[in-house]
Amino acid sequence: MQDAKLLLVDDDPDVLLAARLLLKRHVSSVDIEKNPEKLPFLLNNNRYDAIVLDMNFQRDVSSGREGFAWLDRILDIDPKARVVLFTAYGDVEMAVRAIKAGAVDFVLKPWQNDKFLDTIRGAVEGRKDDKEDIKKEKNGKEPSDKKPAKQTNIIGSAMRPILDTVEQVAPTDANVLILGENGTGKDLIARAIHDYSDRRDKPFVSVDVGALTESLFESELFGHVKGAFTDARDDRAGRFEEANGGTIFLDEIGNLSPAQQARLLTVLQQRQVTRVGSNKARPIDVRLICATNADINERVAERQFRQDLLYRINTIELHLPPLRERPGDIGPLAEFFLKKYSKQYNRSVSGLSPALLAEMKQYRWPGNVRELQHAVERAVILARPELTPGTLLEPNNFVFKNGATTASPVNETLQLEDMERQLIQQAMQKYRGSITDVAKELGLSRQALYRRLEKFGL
Ligand SMILES: Nc1ncnc2c1ncn2[C@@H]1O[C@H](COP(=O)(O)OP(=O)(O)OP(=O)(O)O)[C@@H](O)[C@H]1O
């Protein structure tokens, strides 16, 4: 990295000076800047191999908001910029968010010289790889063929019989109902059915019907005409019309109210939709796939879900087992995500140790594959190069044992977040991963809950 050119941006002159002194011994050019407002000018007039950026530019402020805004700005100017963030010790949560937002790495302040240099070296090397990629793209050598889903992204031997059925039923127009807890792969399977069908070049339209309010349900699914209600300023096609010729995927179907069930049943029987406010029926040609995490037969028995609607949507039923019932898939899935995220975040990490794998198999994974995926993503982001494979998935901020968090010793500022995370985890276990029930219990919207699950890597 001798010939690299670096830029350091921090409002603390002492930090700038100390970092420059260290780095100058290893690279030929290190620019320093106290004022982040100068970033656009500097980036437009120089080509930096890496930029080290502070997260907080105002004294006594630790939200990192400014850092995120400047990170965005840098990536707007140069989408391939390699940004390393300075974060306060203990602010690992923020570092994880920063990497998800496009930073390549982070350095904890106060830094250890060797680690700091390693991180900068990694960032600079990555920039070189990017140059190679650009060359390859220009030579037109990158293959872009889309492989069938089975060969690329659906992992696990327990999924094999399900994929066999998918291959058999995909070319037919049979309605499919996919049952399984949250995060077991229902959406993935629905897309695979579409990809294997003759409708693959037509739209795949996915609707979370559980999140639609009573008043939105009809206009969202079936459309509306101008003036049908106060906010209807134009004619608008609904999701069924959008999916015409292709596939419509209705997720969380078990949560529909009796009125919504009746409306949906009529549309499915008549195979036509009428926009709200209109009396013109429009024929629709869609393949219907539904999914739910509810015990749909129980709901029918309790008269909460119409039997005639169930018969209409469940020509083929697919059951996706929870992850805890297919421990053999945990290893291959974890390896798959490990590979994916080490590439995405440019981290070099090796495989899982048998001890860790055994521990993972003991855990109940209430959030199923989604939880495992987020767990590995976090671990890859947090893993340092000197970690051995055995410790890869055991950093302090990481939750693995049934519901118990391993507290980080420097995390006092994060106590509130820890409590929030624990509450969500407990509720996820209590309701076996049902997003709707957990959101209800915690008084959150489903979207707000999803955002928190994402944030905490659950
Ligand atoms: N067998 C699998 N192989 C690879 N990735 C998987 C597998 N199963 C699930 N995933 C991944 O796990 C995440 C959750 O899967 P998906 O969204 O399909 O679950 P879901 O059952 O539809 O969840 P929800 O009920 O919450 O909508 C996705 O990122 C998906 O790609």
From TrEMBL:
Record field: compositional bias (Basic and acidic residues): 128-148
Entry keyword set: ATP-binding, DNA-binding, Nucleotide-binding, Phosphoprotein, Transcription, Transcription regulation
4-aspartylphosphate: residues bearing it: D54
PROSITE patterns: RESPONSE_REGULATORY (PS50110), SIGMA54_INTERACT_2 (PS00676), SIGMA54_INTERACT_3 (PS00688), SIGMA54_INTERACT_4 (PS50045)
Domain Response regulatory: 5-124
Top-level taxonomic group: Bacteria
A GO term, aspect molecular function: ATP binding
Domain (Sigma-54 factor interaction): residue spans on this chain: 158-381
Gene3D superfamilies in alphabetical order: 1.10.8.60, 3.40.50.2300, Homeodomain-like (1.10.10.60), P-loop containing nucleotide triphosphate hydrolases (3.40.50.300)
Region (Disordered): 128-151
InterPro entries: AAA+_ATPase (IPR003593), AAA_lid_NorR (IPR058031), CheY-like_superfamily (IPR011006), Homeodomain-like_sf (IPR009057), HTH_Fis (IPR002197), P-loop_NTPase (IPR027417), Sig_transdc_resp-reg_receiver (IPR001789), Sigma_54_int (IPR002078)
Listed Pfam families: AAA_lid_14, HTH_8, Response_reg, Sigma54_activat
Keyword DNA-binding carried by entry: yes
GO biological-process terms attached to the record: phosphorelay signal transduction system; regulation of DNA-templated transcription
Protein name per Swiss-Prot or TrEMBL: Sigma-54-dependent Fis family transcriptional regulator
Organism of provenance: Spirosoma validum
